[in-house]
Fold this sequence. Notes:
- This protein is an alpha+beta fold.
- The protein has 20 helices and 17 strands.
- The N and C termini lie far apart (79 Å).
Amino acid sequence: xxxxxxxLNNARGGRVSAHxxxxxxxxDGGEEHALERDVAGGSFNMxxxxxxxxxxxxxxxxxxxxxxxxxxxxxxxxxxSNPFYHYALSWREGERPTQEQCRDAAAHTLKALGLHENQxxxxxxxxxxxxxxxxxIANRVHPEKLSLSGPPKLDFLVLDKAxxxxxxxxxxxxxxxxxxxxxxxxxxxxxSQREQLGLRKTDRAPTPGARAAEVHTGVPSxxxxxxxxxxxxxxxANSWRxxxxxxxxxxxxxxxxxxxxxxxxxxxDGRVTSTKASGVHYSLSLGRLEKKFGSPFSHPxxxxxxxxxxxxxxxxxxxxxxxxxxxxxxxPGRTGSTPERQAKREARALARxxxxxxxxxEQVVQKQAxxxxxxxxxxxxxxxxxxxRQELKAIKPARIAQLTAEHGSKQIAQGxxxxxxxxxxxxxxxxxxxxxxxxxxxAPHLDWLTWLExxxxxxxxxxxxxxxxxxxxxxxxxxxxxxxxxxEDLDPLRAYAAAGSIGGAPPEPTAGAKKGFAxxxxxxxxxxxxxxxxxxxxxxxxxxxxxxPRVDVHITDADTIEAxxxxxxxxxxxxxxxxxxxxxxxxxxxxxxxxxxxxxxxDLQHIVExxxxxxxxxxxxxxxxxxxxxxxxxxx
Length: 636
């Protein structure tokens, strides 16, 4: 469980309402300020008792009560800060808290923040794009004292500790933050201590713009590409000329923008994409480079420099879409070596290349169609401007004569006529600008990711496979710490309902024993849009999630791990990669050895060998001990 404080400002220092925050909590996923049909939510410390905030009338009452208390406190104490406090609590993927657990989590964190006596509302969001999470909005003004209370200065630390407490109380998996759980006890560790224990990320996070570009296009951003492929060359440059030359060889240009530097390059369709130079590496900021080179920014003439096509970002994007970019993993590695899997592998590669070629062809058609529309609109607008000029020229003499007769002065008439002509031209310009904007906005341009989603929904398996690969690639680093199995998925995403359908694994020795979870008893929910399948037990708890190249295990008991291994073995050709914490990986490796599932991780081979030796010992029949010869009582 993780907590996030959502900052609320009050720049004007005046009256603030809880309306927008409360309405956001009970929004519909794609439409802001609209109610969800099955939303869960509640309130604390309202004068009329706990309200049903799914009811618009109760929600309106809650907003008015919170606004009244906040305004009374502001008038009495003259504070200018925002009287409302907003934070969110997020569970891990696959965790499904009940309404009672959500309410307890909100109450526990409010008490930790010192806001347990104040008015507050909470609501649960279960949209598929995010993990299940609740939003909590609390009134910082005490309803009786009318004074500001809470939160403490280091509120993020308080919330992080409260999350660990809730994980222990409600039996959730532990997330890592400033506070960690070690041997059942909550401890606060420094950054260096967490790094030593492998509990803290050390990789530099992408900039918000770069991350947005990756999510929007389904391709690593320009910033990430430069950081991976050209960072060392850029940092080694000793002059502006060398820096420009390195970028030019990769089809990029460097320019000033505001107070910093921006790197531009072209995409395969000719559009330009950009990134901040400092987003590639902090040493590439304008100030640091000017200090390093000893001169202000300059742009030498590099017109003779030609980019190497194989080293450009456009070629990289094409290769990613075609699935031929080396080193960019849409899968964790090859698993299974049968001729059948090799044939599927080759067929998938051909289908992926044809998919990328189809997208290119559609882009060309769209570009030509848009060019035709633009040319037609330009000609139409040109004709409208010419017609207006001719119309104004034709009516000018009569209109000036009419205005002269009305006002008794030709000079005044000419001035009024000029104003009328300007108004007519401005009206035409405004309308034509709106039409041009509409054409640009409504042009049928589809980025790679949106196009893939459309094709996948239409039943294109190559597009669905590409979507699963993009999702795996984006979450590869994060998934290393999540319990699950990975492998090369060569078949369409489908549910495996029967454990007996999984070949290559020996039958369970204790087949007669009742298991806590088995594939044949699972409740299966298929999500075509997001390309995943959830396997739940009879109590409704999500045990596993199959997302193509990865099977996440959410409950780490022996039965769920066995079911996950059997499913992964069937999907990945009998071999798996194991990710997660140390205890899970060791347990899964031992169970894999007993099930005959191959483990590809080099660091787990010694555990697999130990378990195989133990299996051999267990299967070797013990030799009966030879009885001792009887003693002769007369022998002395």
